């Protein structure tokens, strides 16, 4: 036995306070111990860890703050237990030192159990806050062209599946997007087509909504920003709140101009190389590294309309100083769902010195600030979009009987953003800063789901080069499920991925041969042996029991992949594909008992379990391929899915099964796609 005089230990800075660690068991046991001192007004750094921890307060007064914002007062004699991954901080609220002793150890089983809880979508559904509305935003598309599969595979498809799954969990979830009419790219397209920006926006926003419909994307609110009632007045009011922040100023900073036409150059008016990574880039954002630029600071800049080298001179605009919001943005991101790539981008951008980003630009197409001398400028369309989401909530509320106010965002609103990596800066850095500037007291709860580019046969999709597979080329009511399943398998999630028509057609062949082939054979056998009525399970073999367990494992895995923490359509689709393959293998392995009178009870169980697998397949595909899900449930004598299954359920015995002549997939997928242009650079 040894006794440690804690007060004699030498203290070192750790976790934002002074700590000493005590080698209680001479490094032989997996238990750590320590001693900590927090000065008045001090607080430990926010953290989560995988160890179990117990700490005892020895001296002073404080509070522990837990997940969900609970605060509990603690003093001498109190013992605090921290489970793995519990967010916790200890704050000194007294006038003297707060002193504590701590012990912590790894317990693998507890850590895994807690991690499962954290990742489990089911767990979220039991949250009493489940009634709070969840607003799922996908970046409003720019109406300068129709949508191709690169666009569709990203935010729109992701947000659609996410919102559908949340609704199956019983949550109040809405998909909100719109048409980003005031983009400068709309003006550029108008010049090309000899049309006004309004004509261009109106034409392509119609095309875009048609294409989203063809992909079966359910949208609860689609805001046309150049037509939405009261939108302009509210945008101006929002910006007045933003401008009231000390971090928002009118500044005459450098800007790029065309020396021949004197045009102000930003976004598509200027191109060059990204000042951060050196890749070819347009003005204001680099698609490669995701970092913003200020247009005038690009390397080798060229005015796209005249080919002239821009000149740089000061131009007074409204700007926001992003550094002022660094702690707020990074702190919120660490606590929320945000990928490592997003966190790294925010760390880099917010480390820039005095980063003043213009939020108005000299321009006529858009909404002008109220300042009389700013009538020749408009709010930059990206900051405008940050308000557009709030406007969408109010407009949706008016139609659904909710008194939601765009200019009074609520703490219980959950925001989920879906966007491509090239728009990360706007969604994850600029918007939280603008919201903080406009509504300092609002605790915005925002999570981020980012996708990477889906490339087309080895090179980027390109609207301007007309190198794309357009949604309308491949989407029909007969092909949409195959396209959705293929996009789920192949969309870019952690890295860029590739699309090809031949791979889409291979997926279609798989769906016909494996999914449809198995379901038809199952339908045939139920018809032949049980007059087309689902049999009850009879005698269970060890193999049957193991298969039931396997189905439950697949169900749990799919639930995790659709849920917020583990959201991945790549993995959801892979697991669903494995579910079908495992069931085909199970059916093959157990077919030998078919037709043996003595084993009829056992073979009934084989059929009942295949029907349970088919039922799981129908439920698991409800968010992903809703038409297939509905058709399969109908073939099993079930209504369309309305609730996510919490366990594996057998199909009720006696249900009419009509699978033997069901055709779920069309033979004709991708036949009308125009030949893909060969890359210019190749
Ligand atoms: Zn770059």
UniProtKB/TrEMBL annotation:
GO molecular function, one term: ATP binding
All copies of domain Methionyl/Leucyl tRNA synthetase, residue ranges: 141-517
Reaction(s) catalysed (UniProt annotation): tRNA(Met) + L-methionine + ATP = L-methionyl-tRNA(Met) + AMP + diphosphate
Gene3D superfamilies according to UniProt: HUPs (3.40.50.620), Isoleucyl-tRNA Synthetase, Domain 1 (1.10.730.10), Jelly Rolls (2.60.120.10), Methionyl-tRNA synthetase, Zn-domain (2.20.28.20)
Pfam families the UniProt entry points to: Cupin_2, tRNA-synt_1g
Keyword Ligase (UniProt): yes
Cellular component, GO, one term: cytosol
One GO biological process term: methionyl-tRNA aminoacylation
Domain of life of the native organism: Bacteria
Classification via SUPFAM superfamilies: Anticodon-binding domain of a subclass of class I aminoacyl-tRNA synthetases, Nucleotidylyl transferase, RmlC-like cupins
InterPro entries found in the cross-reference section: aa-tRNA-synth_I_CS, Cupin_2, Met-tRNA_ligase_1, Methionyl/Leucyl_tRNA_Synth, MetRS_Zn, RmlC-like_jellyroll, RmlC_Cupin_sf, Rossmann-like_a/b/a_fold
Keyword Repeat carried by entry: no
Keyword entries, A-Z: Aminoacyl-tRNA synthetase, ATP-binding, Cytoplasm, Ligase, Nucleotide-binding, Protein biosynthesis
Occurrences of domain Cupin type-2 (ranges): 37-100
Family membership noted in the UniProt record: Belongs to the class-I aminoacyl-tRNA synthetase family. MetG type 1 subfamily.
PANTHER family for this protein: METHIONINE--TRNA LIGASE (PTHR45765), METHIONINE--TRNA LIGASE, CYTOPLASMIC (PTHR45765:SF1)
The protein's name: Class I tRNA ligase family protein
Organism: Stappia taiwanensis
